[in-house]
Amino acid sequence: MNEGERRKQLLQLAAGAAFLAVAVVLVLIVVNASSSGDGGDTKLEGTKEVNRALKGIPQNGMVLGDPQAPVELVEFADPKCPYCKAFAEGVLPPIIENQVKNGQLKISYRVYAIIDDQSQPAGAAAYAAGRQGRGWNFVELFYRNQGSELKPYAEDEFLEAIAKGAGVKNLSRWNRERAELEPEVEATTAEAQELGFTGTPSFAIKGPKTKGLQPLGTIGGTNELEAEIAAAG
Amino acid sequence: MSYPSEWTLRRAIAFFAALGVGVAIYIAVEAAGGDTPACIAGSSGCATVAKSSYSHLAGVNIAVFGIVGYVLLLASAFFANDLARFGGFLVALGGFGYSVFLTYVEVFKIEAICQWCVGSAILMTILFALSATRLIAFAGAQSGSEPLPNRA
Lengths: 233, 152
Hints:
The complex is a heterodimer. By secondary structure, chain A is α+β, with helices and mostly antiparallel strands. Chain A contains ten helices and six strands; from the N terminus they run H-H-E-E-E-H-H-E-H-H-H-H-H-E-E-H. A six-stranded mixed β-sheet of chain A has the order 1-2-4-3-5-6. Chain B is 67% helix and 3% strand. Chain B contains five helices and two strands. Chain B has a two-stranded antiparallel sheet. In chain B, helix 3 runs antiparallel to helix 4 and helix 4 runs antiparallel to helix 5. Chains A and B meet through helix 1, helix 7 and helix 8 of A and helix 2, helix 4 and helix 5 of B.
């Protein structure tokens, strides 16, 4: 093959490659643009149940319930903590159904990042969902799909799926704000440590009959929690 | 149309590819250490982009692919033959195309701009222009020191 033929062949190959590259980039952009829906991720478990259970209850940041409720229960928890999941699924539901829905109690969820390196970004992702009024949906749905605390399952894809399933409307904003909210997780983790808590979930309570925020520590069950709420209010 | 000598183009490719290797290594090292690249003027764009799902491809940080691409481009500058010209063009084309996609993602999906990513995209654009010029001007040339006659 002479020089001219080889040159012609190389330039034809280059033109074909350039055409292919343009097509691939366009396909990538179109596929990504069409995958920006706000709908829930069908791979998750419990999406409908969680969103149905929380429907109609006011959410302000990570506070669930009427902002004017006289008693505030503060839960320090880690989304990756299995005990927090057990508590959320076994102890809290009757409290939410009764005291929260009747306006007697509000529950503030504060992240105590204690399990591993993914706890802080997971907590920040919950806070970012809270900015859009879906913080509790995020946390509850996270618990429903929680993996082993020993495994690093809470990657970005998992968190995005939870956010979608929780009904976070503006995913771009959520994605942006979750990076900014990690210092807030550090602050609430420090707050939990200052209160003397060494595990999750730990609780504190504030009401007309308490002197400021009263540390409770860990709670045995629904009855014990109801007693503390009654004593504070 | 007159072109610079291939020697000039190769030196320019080597220079910008070396810069690209530095940028990509910085991003990869920061990510491997659990940090995010520091944005100038305290912007949080780099952290947002680094924490997004687009920062990894098949579980590998895309900065690692960047390092490989820039090293290949750097290597292509050391040889004056058709394999280096065409190989360099293909790598630069791939890098440029992916940079276009990532810039789209930053602007329209993540809605955050990482200055390091923009820097890398600019470097890849320059390298694509240089590699394409090199291929158009010198494809088929034996010595590569001067453009072949009868070029478009």
